[in-house]
Amino acid sequence: MLKKAFVSMALLMMVTFLMTTSGFAQKVRGVTDTEVLIGQTGPQTGPAALWGSVARGSGLFFKGINDEGGIHGRKIKYFLRDDGYQPAKTRAIATEFVEQIGIFGVVGCVGVGPGMAVRDYYTENKVLMVSFGSSGVTNWIHPFNRYIFPIYPLYVDEAHGLTKYLFEHMKLTKVAVFYQNDDYGKQGLEGVERYEKEMGLKLVASVSAEVTERDLSSHALKLKSSGAEAVVMWAMPTHAALLLTECAKIGFKPQWVTSSTLADTPVMMQITKGLWAGMILSYPIETPDSNNPLMVKYRAWHQKYEPNERWGTFYYSGCVYAEPLAEGLRRAGRNLTPETFIKAMETLKDWRGIGGPFTFTPTDHQGAKYVRYAQVQPDSTVKILTDWVRITQ
Amino acid sequence: MLGQLIVSGLAVGACYSLLALAMVIIYKTSDVLNFAQGEMAMISTYVAFTLMESYHVPFQWAVILTFLFAILLGASFELVFLRQAKEPTVLGLIIITLGFEMILMGFAGWKWGPDQRSLDFPVSNIETYNLFGLVMSKINFWTIVITLVLMFILFLFFRYTKVGVAMRATQQNQLAARVMGIRTKWILSFTWAISSMVGAVAGMLIAALGVLDPTMMMDPLLKSFASAVLGGMTSLPGTAVGGAMLGIIENLFGGYVSLSFKSVVAFAVIVLMLCIKPSGLLAKHYVKKV
Hints:
heterodimer; A: alpha/beta; Rossmann fold; 2 domains; 13 helices; 13 strands; 15% strand; elongated; B: mainly alpha; ABC transporter involved in vitamin B12 uptake, BtuC; globular
């Protein structure tokens, strides 16, 4: 009896010992000999579903990469989950990603609210967050987090740069702002105000709208009565269309300027019935018809794998967000762990995919610091006005 | 600026009135608040859009076919969902409309996707009529005309036709109405059909004024509810007055007080009216005898 108990104890101790020794501990979550497990949340249904194509675009990119043989012999196994842009759902999916599926990292995951709901959880669990949040708010770089690699230009710097462009290239000083009343819109407003303050100027008006509002007639009147020569708009597509129409009705025709979030020009031209022409915007990625060899390759993948998807900017942004992840995996080599991946990512210096130049250092993970300025043409194409301009110091 | 704020308020108020009209028709007959009203209108508008975009059906034919679809949608919702409810209470029926709203929203997202679209309309939303320096887009003007005409027709219908009187009787006492030989089930289906058609008119105009997407009716539905509460939930002219007043109040508040708080004015109106005059401005306070 005693002997039996002793043997059982010894066996238990041995198992415990083996589990804690290096051979077992080295197993990295989400990495096998043949696969790397990557997740992405994105609204496929609900009010924000328009941005859901980003996650599907990343799926296209991973399909292409896998068909080329994967990276260091590993295929990317991609998990796309619909969070409906609801932070509570995003949090539940994060638990599934980490505790059930066991992912190595996430890519994209559009949305400030959804992103904030899971940022700390992912950090605690050492989940790599590449191109996280798919947005230019400062929440991903303050406080510094070595697991997050954001690649969207900061809204505040983007708005600052656009106002500077208006002032320096078009000599427009009477500037008003129309912004969505949330973090996204407020950071646009902050950027314009910062430039105005630097130049000793004053905003002629700042007008905000709630996300759900559908009547912007009084907003248009307020902007008109301010006498603005230019209006910087930090809003969603519906508001942009409504505001342009209301302003056209009352004969208010300022120079319109907007963020890269409204870069889907064919859609904007259609829903504004052509009023979008002349819009100046920052353009941090290649244009849809670009002859860049990577764009040519991705368009071919699009035709081969997902011909029913519309080749819009949100869709191929999914490729832009996934590109640095693939490059990080390449540079990390066969010995892939969160630490080797982070070190590899921090060697990217002015690295180019189909987005702007990205740089990550051990102390600075804000990858995108450059944009180009462009103007929408009457035929729905965009004319690039400048070379890459550094907006974040 | 004051004059233009009022004119713009009237224009947007007409949209609220139209949708409120659709809600009131159902409420007058069955005491049910239809939370699916907005999404029923949105689906009908998508049908019009598909007919014109994919099948190149001329506008007037697309509108007629959409009306037919809306009638079928309204009647079948009553027949398939509401009528099947076991021992239904008003609250239970309202919850069913909420469920139907979610089904329709999900269906639209699946069928047409989340992209914003533009509904082609023969009247321009950018060209305007000018009067003493005040501007109103052509489509805004015609929205007001259509609202008033529809309201007038429905008013006559409820007041002077047999079916209209039967609809009012059904609301006041279903059992007594049935005893008097009114086919109340048929009346309810008919009510939902008419309401759905009026909603389709509202949906098409609202889409033409802005953009067409699955969420386009969320804000207008709330505002139309506030308009109906303001004007009186059982009064057809009340919806027109309520919509116009709400549009003007919102715009004046946005223009002179705060644009940031403009969107909560409708909530304030609902709360104030329910505290001061729950029956609304134009409806008579009706007490059911027991």
